[in-house]
Write a structure and sequence with these properties.
It is built from seven helices and seven strands; from the N terminus they run βαααβββαβαββαα. By secondary structure, the protein is α+β, with helices and mostly antiparallel strands.
Length: 200
Amino acid sequence: MQLQIDGLKTRVFSLNSASILEILSVHEALRPYLSESENYYPGFKAWYQKVYVQLLLGGRSIIAAYSKNNIAGFAILKNTICENKICTFKINKQFRKNGIADNLMATALNLLGFKNVLITMPDFHHENFIPLMDKFGFFMICKKHCAYKKNHSEFFYALDPQPAFGLDVKNKSEMNGEMDKIYGGIEKDVQVKYSHDTLP
């Protein structure tokens, strides 16, 4: 059953589109929705505090979808010379299956310029993300076991990864074959050292 959403609005919060007070306000407003990430990703609280600083410096953006005064969903983006990444992407449960994910993803990709965009998700959310990844043309580039937490895997996707990796491929099957060479096996267990920069 779909929820009827009244007055849905999407707002971008960044150095160029919001005041410092507005950025601080949305940064704090998202905290209650990030408890799952805090429990899963090591060092998440410190990373999220760094997000606020980078919002003020211009290296991050937040997209928030509102229904009246309620946060329906949001995305945290990293947009630097070195990396275009959708770091956090969440639709709150009561607002799912209403096209908000499509709206947020389209807005995020537009802000990131549609090139070399990365996104990752843990194994327990992967199945829910697959339709969205397919719809917007993302390729799975690897699966890393114990990337952030023991006995869990992280799935890595890229939008149009060919320029980033210097590849010349025509389809997903061929892309996965090339990524298998680069990463030594999509399904291979890889222990990844994390830093705040590698967190979502």
